[in-house]
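Subject: Protein entry, chain in single-letter code together with its fold tokens

Category: Structural biology, sequence-to-fold work with a learned token vocabulary.

Notation: Tokens come from a learned vocabulary of local backbone shapes, not from coordinates.

Start of record: The labelled sequence and token lines come straight after this line.
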Amino acid sequence: MAQPAKTELTVQGIAASQGIAYGQIFVYIQSDVEVPSYQVEAEKRIEEVSRFDRALITTRQQISKIQGEVEKNLGAEEALIFDAHLMALEDPALIGETIREFESTGQNIETCFNKVSQRYIQAFAKFEDEYLRERASDIRDVAQRVLQNLLGQAENSLSRLADKRIVVANDISPSDSASIDRSAAIALVTDSGSKTSHAVIVARSMKVPAVVGVRNLTKRARNGDWAIVDGYDGVVILNPSESTLFRYGKIQERKKSFEARLLQANREKAVTLDGVPVSLMANIEKVDEVAQVKSFAAEGVGLYRTEYLFLNSARIPTEQEQFLAYKEVAESVAPHPVIIRTLDLGGDKPMSGNPDLFPKENNPFMGFRAIRFCLEHQDIFKDQLRAILRSSAHGKVRIMYPMISGSEELLRANAVLAECMTELKGRGIPFDENLEVGAMIEIPSAAVTADILAKDCAFFSIGTNDLIQYLLAIDRVNDRIAHLYEPTHPAVVRTVKHIVDEAHKQGVPVSVCGEMAGDPVYAPLLLGLGIDALSMSPSWLPSVKYLVRAMTMADARALAAESLTMESPKEIYARCDAFYRARVKVE
């Protein structure tokens, strides 16, 4: 396909998900539409009003089409939300005030409509009545769509990409990622973010390349621009020349040859050269990802992120709806285990459809999230626990609590679980009465008191994403300090070792389910520190298994012992990288 003759531009970011993609860009704009302001000549004012009418008609058609698709795919109840959008669009007061504003000021219709709609949004947002407050959100959504149509901008939607596209965004939130069109997105690129952002987790689960921390690319790129995304070296090349395309074609051939070797190794057992078996499991967010768990020969699901059932819905899923999802995963993965993590909502994962559940916080990562939310909203927590318990009758299910800070939270959560067990017994509903319960170790206080928590846990799973950010006081999704997020910091290495040692003293196995587990540079270090299992995005399993089969556990333990004596994160990383490169040849 011919591409426009534009100047080639190479932009450096952070390599986040491996792979190389070439295609056209779709710029996903999440911010408010930028509205130009100018005076309309008197002789053009009738046409300006007609332009407004056409935009309203187009918007109405778009919303009606979406409503029809939702009703067809999800049901009539879910489609009702768009009735409110259509009501806002047809509000005579909103439209009438826009026309009067235009007639009195002579400003372009976009400016007039934006002024009036903002007044309505602010007015409705101040009402105490919940229904009226929700009208503000309806008007905001409709207003953005009308403005896009007035300005001739294409509708931005990650759930309905027109064709195969490289998605470029400032960032991709958890709710955005839950709706992304996985059949059409061939690469993800974000201005902000780090290796552990949600965009990266999604990209890895989709097996597409991703580059994050590419400053202001959304302002440089345009819809339809051609680009190369290099997820190995963290490079994005806009408008690549013929010579660049040729060079990357050769690189991609070598990478594909190496990937074929990875897939071949993935058919074998994960056993080191000195005969030590290693358990490799998969992280999933959605039921349909179970197919990847099987295709990549994972030994079960080490982390099932259940919050995506909630982020994908405008309402809280019922116990029955959750049960059906958990049951399907448990049956599909059996006889291998499925570790279901209870809700980790909050922080950067609020429920957009239920804002009252998550009051605005200055520091949400340190605030009302995960187990704290569940223990306060026990009706929601119990629905989920009963659903998980019921699914345990259909496979090897385990429960894991996130963000446990100490033994008191763990005991309170277990007490609620015991109540749910009693309720199910009373209803005569079967479940695994010997179901194993564990905790994620991702808060420093939990790491320090691992010996205490181990008394009431069947297993630990270290969430390195949050553990690192809390240990180092580094916001892992803040691109301005992303360079300070260092998995090989001596504090991280020593903390992992402490957790493993204290757990093993009491016979409690320890896995890692953070992004560190799926990085083949870090995997040998973790195994050398004594980690019993690694759980990662399914697409990373071949890379890690290949390395496991190319090393000895004795060498991994020597690497860990050496790392524990080092003082610099860069020194430890260089040693891990050298270990990796000595055993894996891409060329």
